[in-house]
Amino acid sequence: MQSTRRHFVKMVGLGMGSVMASSSLLANTPAKTKKPNLLFIMTDQQRWDALSIAGNTVLQTPHLDRLAGQGAYFKHAYTPCAVCCPARSVVLTGHTVEKTGMTRNDFAYTPEQEGLMTQPTFDEILTKNGYRCEYYGKWHSLSARAECYQNPVQAARNGLSIFGPGGQTYMYRDYLNQHVPRRELQIGEFYENISQRPYRTDPIDRYHGMSPAELKAKDIGVVQPDQHGELLMSSRHSITAFQARQTIEAIERLKDQPFSITCSFHFPHSPITPTGSYYGMYPPEAIDPPVSIHDDMSNSPYVGTNGRQRLSEYRDKDKIRYMISNYYGLVKEIDDWVGELLKTLDKHGLTENTMVIFTSDHGEMLGAHGMREKNVFYEESAHVPLMIRFPGRINDHTVIDGYVSLMDLFATILDYMGVEKHPSDGQSLRGLIETTDTTQGRYVVAEWLWRGDTESNYMIVKDGWKMMIPCTETSTVLNALYDLNTDPYEMNNLIGHNPNRSHYAEKTEELRRCLLEWLNKTGSAHVEGVRKRKLV
């Protein structure tokens, strides 16, 4: 793809005559007398290329591919922050991480701290405009912002709110208590953290080969990212199935009134433990390890991030195949259930009047650069899937080649739902989709503000060039510049310690100007720090 065309919209499968007629087609669409509905589907930790439509030759996602083909598919969508709670807060409010103040995951459940997420969410606004809003699955944002949801069940075990810490997990465990009784562990098994049911470990599991007694004797705390293997229960009782069925029941119950329903899948976030046939569906031996798995990171700002130097298993080509295999199984299960969600809309005649959005809060490294999880601006962590279907409003086979942020979804939802525009830092994607805006999509910015200037705070991508920098003049964190056009795996930092970094002064200044434009537009306090920082 030519970098000079990255900000244009390409209409796949349509001739130029059809493209020119698209606005006429939309103008002649019969007026809708009923308010449109919204089905918002979000996964957790799904990278952009965990889709067959994105070119993945191993993983097959036919239902998501169909969804993308029936509407707009965004090739270059990025998370506003590659961390769960900050990203979700931005998606809900349309405001930057800096403005919401939700810079850390543990801020989700801290109502005593003032000044967090003071902006209304799109569902709060829709509720005031006559919508019934319900939310199923992972919340992980400020609990106070969930009061608009009218789920039939509002409290989990011991009266805990389903939007409080662990609330929906407790609901799932109570369901399992009825259908999958907990049993004693056998050799090679441990309890998986979410379900508290046994799973059989794979070689990449941190405790593979240990016994539960050894683990207990050493007083080792097991965390989700350490768990890899087969969850030993039927797929019909997985948390993905549980969350999808909750959503299907909500669609069927609300089919005769305007609704906004969110299905927020936990997976493919860790623990990477698929069930049933999804385990081993993609044999590990048939999977290639990441090209960058043995990157020495000598000129990277992330050389020690995510426990990379300590967790050597994620730099092991043989072990990482198991993680990728299981991750793909989790995504495939989600794809199957997305098919069921779309079938439910069809069954009840809701398809034509329902906007469906599919995305993920951030990606997963899966061994790229020898790392796991997210928290970084590498493509595997920051680049996410995004597709929007809305029959009669969005043409089939619309492929958006410009750069967009999930921060834009807030304005996009209100726009297509016909609700009055509300202040936000994002911009409706409608202009890009309908080719009426030729300026949007030139570049995209992401933030990471948790630990001050001790890590890269900003990422900007433009024309296939990516720059990562801290927010102050004095930070000792390395600057980074990657040419994704020639270096898609981000192995060659062109600045930082590069002795020839001065050759890239013009490009870094171009990207800095765009970043400053964005910081000024969003009212950031970091304008001067970015302006004064030495880049090369």
Structural account:
It is a single chain. With 536 residues, this protein is of the alpha+beta class. The protein is 27% helix and 15% strand. It has 14 helices and 16 strands. The chain has helices at residues 16-27, 62-69, 84-93, 97-100, 122-128, 167-179, 212-217, 239-254, 317-347, 379-382, 409-416, 430-433, 505-521, 527-532; strands at 9-11, 37-43, 72-78, 132-137, 189-191, 198-201, 229-231, 259-264, 354-360, 383-384, 386-389, 398-405, 443-447, 458-462, 465-469, 480-483. The strands form three sheets. Strands 1, 2, 3, 4, 8, 9, 10, 11 and 12 form a nine-stranded mixed β-sheet that branches. A four-stranded antiparallel β-sheet has the order 13-14-15-16, with helices on one face. Strands 5-6-7 form a three-stranded antiparallel β-sheet. A hairpin with a 6-residue loop joins strand 5 (189-191) and strand 6. The longest helix is centred in the middle third of the chain and has 31 residues, at 317-347. The chain is globular. Mean pLDDT is 91; it is low at 1-32.
